[in-house]
Amino acid sequence: MAEKTAVPTNPASANFSGLPVIGLLTLLSLPLAVMYAYLFIDTISNSQGGSLVPSEFTLEHWRFLWETRPGKPNIWLVTLNTVIFTCCITAVTLTVSSMAGYVLSRLNVPARGFFLAGVMVLHAFPSVTLIIAIFIVLQYLGLYNSLIGVILVKAAIDLPLGIWLMKGFYDTVPWEIEMAGVVDGASRFTVWRRLVLPQIKPAVMALGLFSFLSGWSEFILPQVLAPGARVQVLSVYLAGLIADDNNFDFGTFKAVGVFYVVPVLILYAFFQKHLMNIYGGGTKG
Amino acid sequence: MRILLDKFCKSFGTTSVIEDMQLEVGSGEMLALLGPSGCGKSTTLFAICGIHRPTSGRILFGDRDVTNLPSQARNVGVVFQSYALYPHMTVEENIGFPLKVKRLATANIKQQVAEIAKLVQIDNLLGRRPGQLSGGQQQRVALARALIRRPDVLLLDEPLANLDAKLRLEMRSEIRRLQRETGITAILVTHDQVEAMSMCDRIAIMNKGEIVQIASPSDMYNDPRTAFVAGFLGNPPISFLKGRAEQGAFVLRDGGLKLPLPALSGIADGTELTLGVRPEHFGVAGGIPVEGRVTFAETQGRENLYDVVLPDGSVLRSIQPVRDDVKPGAQVRWMLDSSSTFVFAEDGRRL
């Protein structure tokens, strides 16, 4: 895993100096860096109105971590909801895509072409346009305002991309490996599970991360389909803070924002190499 | 175990690849399916191991009809051209996989893997992964994996195609040794006549989905049934001359060469014929002198290979012990051994 992570200490190539490039990039990204810096600084300090320099250190904006604000759900319940929501979506997406992708890539199923085209169309379909219909369906099924309902919807919307990606990766696995497995006496399921799936492990990792991040940052579906206090996720909680005109607290809003983004940053730091698989060399469908 | 293909047919969609093939492989025999690419030899192999279902006909292992059995229930060992090792498993896991699928005890698997690994001489590599092995070693792993189930038949699909020349020579005798030691029935698919002749008891030569001739290598070399067979066997290949029959003799188109051949008695004058002359039968020994010009000379160390163009433009190949008196462009008068030539009718049938 770690054999190719040697970071070049000097980014300049032998032909030209890297300094001007670095200088230009620094200049261009400075506004972003400053904004991120103040996002963090503002959560642990107070400053006079109109001043950029913090005047005092304080943890009051992080109070939401240990005391529940009136009219708001407990932050740890919300975090737990978000974790459940995200993990379930990841699990469902991975399980279904890895199997469906295999079927579409390898098995001679009826209407295979139709399914392939269908998956493609669904992938391109803007999910927001469906939201009212989904709302009615969930209401009818009694799944409105429940985590299960919104998990199913979100997973279903993520699935076409996942299936298509998995199919592309399965297509690159040589047929001979499967033939060898079958001749060795393994059932088709064993062949898939023990021989083929391990070949596309990087793709499974990448898709898992991808759907985790996508689930973590999902806002519109939980907002519409599961807004209740018991089933709120962090994005909805965050939106609730800024929409609350009565006790508007920009410091807390920023603190929750930082709290919300930290897991994503950690994931990126550790797994960005796997994520590159999807963006870099993925679909060969 | 005896393998029998009885009236075997295979078509893909509307394309018929093999029609009415009849093939019997004796128990413990090694048979080569030899032919140019696209002649249906791999299709036949995949039908025997159960990856393709025959369109019609029967496949028998011993007396057991396996025509409708899936691969898993057939007990065959296959070595694929690309070896198809499982890249994420160690050599030991690769070889043990067929047994693991059968849910044998781990200790038992370990012991059997050790035995077979010793047989194919890779017992020092068991901890490695396929990516860390050379081509020849991968080949041995593939062989071990095919043999560990003690299959009824061992199928080899161009097993030497991915090896370099020296390894190929080594693995040729190695595969033959393993086949003899295990006494297993084996079928080798290849397009390389040298492989087929050196490794197998019998050769079935195929063309366009049909078996043209089945015989032992030397019988087939000395007594080819058609021009196709004669042209496929032998290296350097046989050369063909076009001509016609005239009073029991073969006459070149321009009349420049006349060969009395006993096989031609009773053939009407003027019949179009093809004469096949192997390179070793044109040179210093023989009865009929042939004049021509050397256009190409190649030294192979022990022997020299010459192309000789006859006055009518046709080419005869000659292989002779090394000599350095003949250069390209030289006019030569060499002898042709007419008793060793083959004469074929226009449709390729040997007369």
TrEMBL record, chain A:
Domain ABC transmembrane type-1 residue range list: 79-271
Lipid bilayer topology: Multi-pass membrane protein
CDD domains: TM_PBP2 (cd06261)
GO cellular component, as recorded: plasma membrane
Biological process, per Gene Ontology: maltodextrin transmembrane transport
Pfam families in UniProt: BPD_transp_1
Keywords, in A-Z order: Cell membrane, Membrane, Sugar transport, Transmembrane, Transmembrane helix, Transport
Highest taxon in the source lineage: Bacteria
Cellular localisation: Cell membrane
SUPFAM superfamilies according to UniProt: MetI-like
Gene Ontology MF term list: ABC-type maltose transporter activity
InterPro entries: BP-dep_ABC_trans_perm, MetI-like, MetI-like_sf
Listed transmembrane segments: 21-41, 75-102, 114-141, 147-166, 253-271
Function of the molecule: Part of the ABC transporter complex MalEFGK involved in maltose/maltodextrin import. Probably responsible for the translocation of the substrate across the membrane.
Matching PANTHER family: MALTOSE TRANSPORT SYSTEM PERMEASE-RELATED, MALTOSE_MALTODEXTRIN TRANSPORT SYSTEM PERMEASE PROTEIN MALG
Family per similarity comment: Belongs to the binding-protein-dependent transport system permease family. MalFG subfamily.
Name of the protein in question: Maltose/maltodextrin transport system permease protein MalG
Natural source organism: Rhizobium deserti
Lineage, uppermost ranks: Bacteria, Pseudomonadati, Pseudomonadota, Alphaproteobacteria, Hyphomicrobiales
Automatic annotation (TrEMBL), chain B:
Record keywords: ATP-binding, Cell inner membrane, Cell membrane, Membrane, Nucleotide-binding, Translocase, Transport
GO cellular component, one term: ATP-binding cassette (ABC) transporter complex, substrate-binding subunit-containing
Domain of life: Bacteria
SUPFAM superfamilies: MOP-like, P-loop containing nucleoside triphosphate hydrolases
Membrane topology: Peripheral membrane protein
SMART domains: AAA (SM00382)
Nucleus keyword on record: no
A molecular-function term among this protein's GO annotations: ABC-type transporter activity
Subcellular location: Cell inner membrane
Chief site of localization: membrane
Residue stretches making up the ABC transporter domain: 3-233
Family: Belongs to the ABC transporter superfamily.
Protein name: ABC transporter ATP-binding protein
Lineage summary: Bacteria, Pseudomonadati, Pseudomonadota, Alphaproteobacteria, Hyphomicrobiales
